[in-house]
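Reply to thread "Modeling small-molecule complexes from scratch"

Following up on the discussion above, here's a worked example others can learn from. I took a protein sequence and the SMILES for glutathione and predicted the complex. Inputs first:
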Amino acid sequence: MLILYDGTTSVCGIKARVTLFEKGLKFESRNIDLRKGEQFAPDYLTLNPNAVVPTLIDGDDIILESSVIIQYLEDIGPAPSLLPESPLDRARMRLCLKRIDDPIHPATGTLTHATAFRPAFLKKTPEEQKAHFADMPDPARRARQEAVYRDGLEAPIVANAIRTFDKFVRDAETALAQHDYLAGPAYSLADAAATPYITRLNALKLFTVWQDDCPRIIDWYDRIRARPSYQAMITDYLTAEDIARFDVIDDSTAEKAREILGRK
Ligand SMILES: N[C@@H](CCC(=O)N[C@@H](CS)C(=O)NCC(=O)O)C(=O)O
């Protein structure tokens, strides 16, 4: 039995869950509550010393890194194949996975922590805030979170995150003008990997920034949302607390994005 350590709203965890579902692979999901800091528990650190989710366990083997995990699932999983047929489409898929790992993933963290996660962090005591950062093994992640918890949407790294997403959405729009899915005519790992990130853009009420210029990505998202994997692996996992965290998002994030992109 495969075991996936993940988090309810974790974009990387969702990437793995959606792939498991799309591959028809049975698994046991073990929730790591990132808000409670369970990723820093000594037992979990023996599995994943990076103190992040997801972690996949297959028998005695531990597989880390969401993009590696989904390619592992492709390798062990039966049909349907989520690997494009042509070498060129495979290259497109791998490029998409690479780009989602970096810079899209850190940009997503920046935008999410600057908005949805900031109010809860600001309610912590100074000691709790200090402890949160002290446990974090990755200094780059720590620096990004510190900047946006301090300055919110005014943090300079927010502008970069918005520009990063602007380029990604526009490139996806161009790709979708050529074929139905991100890396060719069929649904692939590229679509599974992009799903949580576009879902997050939607949760941050950022779609209005691109909806007029990029109708194909909106159409792609509608098709992705209609797949059974979306309801089962994303919507059904959300707790009332998760939903409440994103309820604080108003139009100010989209307004800021338009200002950054010079599209008032
Ligand atoms: N490169 C890693 C990134 C994993 C990652 O950043 N996971 C986030 C959730 S999406 C996390 O566990 N964050 C814990 C924290 O911020 O303390 C992967 O793709 O697996």
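What I'd highlight from this example: The pocket of glutathione is lined by residues 7, 10-12, 34, 39, 52-54, 65-67, 101, 136 (CB under 6 Å). The chain has 14 helices and four strands. Questions welcome below.
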